[in-house]
Amino acid sequence: MTKFLHVNASARPGSQSLAIAETFLGALAERDPAVEVDTWHLFADTLPEFGSVAAEAKMAVFGGQEQTPEQVEAWDAARAVFDRFAAADAYVFNVPMWNAGVPYVLKQWIDIVTQPGWAFGFDPAAGYSGLVTGKRAFVTYTSGVYAPGVPIEFGADFATTFFDDWLRFVGITDVSVLRFAPTVLTATPEEDFAQHKDLARKAAADF
């Protein structure tokens, strides 16, 4: 049985990125009813704060120092988030563009799970290496006005470049991407949306 973690980074219940991700998961379930899905609604579920105490806990790990009791508590809270992430065999992410980047809560989640010895290792000679290996991911990106190749007056894209690089950084290199852009500035929005849901079903069949 394959366990999927669906990370929903949209704040809107009726979002198109969420609908595309759910279409993909629905097609997977039709093919294999034994598929297990853990859905993480980042805007609805509470994430622990990763502030000064947790940051000092992280630096203690880097420096090989003992953590204070307060730091241990913060580090354990972060570890619980990472463990839920690492427990999955495969991932589904829906990522809408916010102000040329990713939604802030997705960045918070990434900053919690991406810790030394958990998501990545470091060697002074070889550099960083991802530790979340041997797993696959499906990512759907959406943006209302921006689309690849548009003039800068119609926006810029730091969302896909950031998230693609984070996947690579933690070791997830087998990635299928479906981009729906633009979702608003199009002559046939409903037809385009339906087409992308069909593409999601096809991606599930090939996953």
Report how far the terminal alpha carbons are from each other. Answer: 15 Å
**Helix/strand structural class:** alpha/beta
**Ranges with pLDDT <50 over ≥5 residues?**
none
Instruction: Please write the string of helix (H) and strand (E) elements.
Output: EHEHHEHEEEHEH
Q: How many structural domains can be distinguished in the coordinates?
A: 1
| Shape annotation | globular
Q: What strand line-up does the widest sheet have? A: 2-1-3-6-7
CATH class: Alpha Beta
Helix content: 40-55%
Query: How many helical elements?
Result: 6
**Overall pLDDT:** 96
Q: Sketch the major β-sheet.
A: 5 strands, parallel
CATH architecture field? 3-Layer(aba) Sandwich
Total DSSP E strands: 7
**Percentage of β-strand residues:** 15-25%
The CATH topology comes to Rossmann fold
Tell me the Rg in angstroms: 18 Å
What can you tell me about this protein's structure?
There is one protein chain. The chain is α/β, with parallel strands linked by helices and 207 residues long. The protein has a single domain (3-206), classed as Flavodoxin domain (Rossmann fold, 3-Layer(aba) Sandwich). The protein is built from six helices and seven strands; from the N terminus they run E-H-E-H-H-E-H-E-E-E-H-E-H. It has helices at residues 16-31, 52-63, 69-86, 104-113, 159-170, 189-206, and strands at 3-8, 36-41, 90-96, 120-123, 127-130, 136-142, 174-180. It has a five-stranded parallel beta sheet, sandwiched between helices. Strands 4-5 form a two-stranded antiparallel sheet. Strand 1, helix 1 (16-31) and strand 2 (36-41) form a beta-alpha-beta unit. Helix 2 (52-63) crosses helix 3. The longest helix is centred in the middle third of the chain and has 18 residues, at 69-86. The radius of gyration is 18 Å and the shape is globular. The model has no long low-confidence stretch (mean pLDDT 96).
